[in-house]
Amino acid sequence: MINLNDKTLNNLGDQQKCHSNALEYIYETEFNDDDDLTKQFENYIAEPQLRFTLDPKEWWKTRFSKYPVIGDLAKQYLTIPATSVSSERCFSTADNIVFRKRASLSPENVNMLVFLHQNKYLLNKTC
């Protein structure tokens, strides 16, 4: 049996703060005067678009210190999952959306519904 005292549990809680969505993560990150989120975002948008032949991972390695908050989000969303669970989940979601009575949905509507279902946690995740 594992015995954790209150102090250990409090330290764990301090180390891992749960954010209800991606926007909350961005807005709750502390910035100093020189490196605020607005400047970071504007500078990121002003960067030339990455050519198709270049590796985004390499681009982020050289620019992570310049855009730390956006880089954290890029790390989370540009990584390749080690399993096929997320793709299987996506097919399962699509299967639940498109069934006999709803077979006349356009592909665009199906794509939008699957996208919304798969990303709803960004808006209403509970800890």
From TrEMBL:
- MF terms (GO), sorted A to Z: protein dimerization activity
Cross-referenced SUPFAM superfamilies: Ribonuclease H-like (SSF53098)
Where in the numbering of this chain does the HAT C-terminal dimerisation domain appear? Answer: 41-119
Q: What sections of the sequence does the record tag as coiled-coil?
A: none
Transmembrane residues, as ranges? none
Which InterPro entries does the annotation name? HATC_C_dom, RNaseH-like_sf
Top-rank taxon, per record: Eukaryota
Q: Which Pfam families match?
A: Dimer_Tnp_hAT
Q: What is this protein called?
A: HAT C-terminal dimerisation domain-containing protein
